[in-house]
Amino acid sequence: MKELYLLYGTAASLGFFHTILGPDHYVPFIVLSKARNWSRSKTLWITFISGLGHVSSSVLLGFVGIALGISIHKLESLEAFRGNIAGWMLLVFGLIYFFYGIFRYMKKNGHSHPFRFLLPEKIRKAQHIHADSEESIKKSNKAGITSWMLFLIFVFGPCEVLIPMLIFPAAQHSTIGIVMVAVIFGLATILTMLGVVYLGYKGSKQLKLKQKSEYIHIAAGFVIAFLGVSIQFLGW
User: Where are the transmembrane segments (predicted)?
Assistant: First the structure.
């Protein structure tokens, strides 16, 4: 019993530290919330759903592996394979969003009048309001695609440290132990994600980027793509 309590504490600690040390667990939500002007509740909801998918996929894999008697080596190999897929997905998603930001910037500047500064102030303000209203409509229509892409990436993202922790209670034939380890690890991971994203969201609100807002989608895509490169080639 003491061993299980120690394992529960380890599960909570690893859930916290593996999230904190993996910027891919929270940076995409922070930069996209800023770029797409998500509300706090929407940002945290997307983070929660993605985190739930992230943990649940590894828990399900672990449960199925234990039930079928699959060796830990094979389960860890499968988790590594899933991690490779998730890394590539994050990289591709970042590149797509990066080029979307460039396309949006070029389209916006191509649409604007080259001698706009010569127009009367009322006309310039009217054009700005019209452009903002069109952009708001486009954002409301496309926000769901970005959210679902994040969710899908996190579903493929593995929790490598979880599988070994499930093996010990399984060897002790403790169903409660297996469930408790999964629940504690999952709660620690998701709560840490929510906490860091919340702090990042509040911090990003302090940044005054109105003059540079036309570049924010490009910057968001670059940051996400860099995370993908770091995971795939730098071993983050």
Answer: 6-32, 44-73, 85-103, 148-170, 176-201, 213-234
Please choose, from the candidates 227, 230, 224, 210, the residue with its C-alpha nearest in 3D space to the C-alpha of residue 100. Answer: 224
Tokens of 222: 């670059």
Residue 128 in any domain: the answer is no
Q: Map residue 45 onto helix, strand or coil.
A: helix
* Calpha distance 146→117 (Å, rounded): 35
Assigned domain for 108 exists: no
C-alpha dihedral sign at 177, 182, 186, 188: positive
Sign for the CA dihedral angle at 52, 54, 59, 60 comes to positive
Integer CA distances (angstroms), 176 to 73, 165, 180, in order: 24, 13, 6
- Looking at the structure of the chain, the number of domains it has is 1
Cα separation of 156 and 159, whole Å? 10
- pLDDT by residue (tens digit) across 118-172? 445 544 454 444 444 445 434 444 457 888 899 999 999 888 888 888 888 887 7
- 153 contacts 93 by C-beta, under 8 angstroms: yes
How remote is the C-alpha of 209 from its chain's centroid? 22
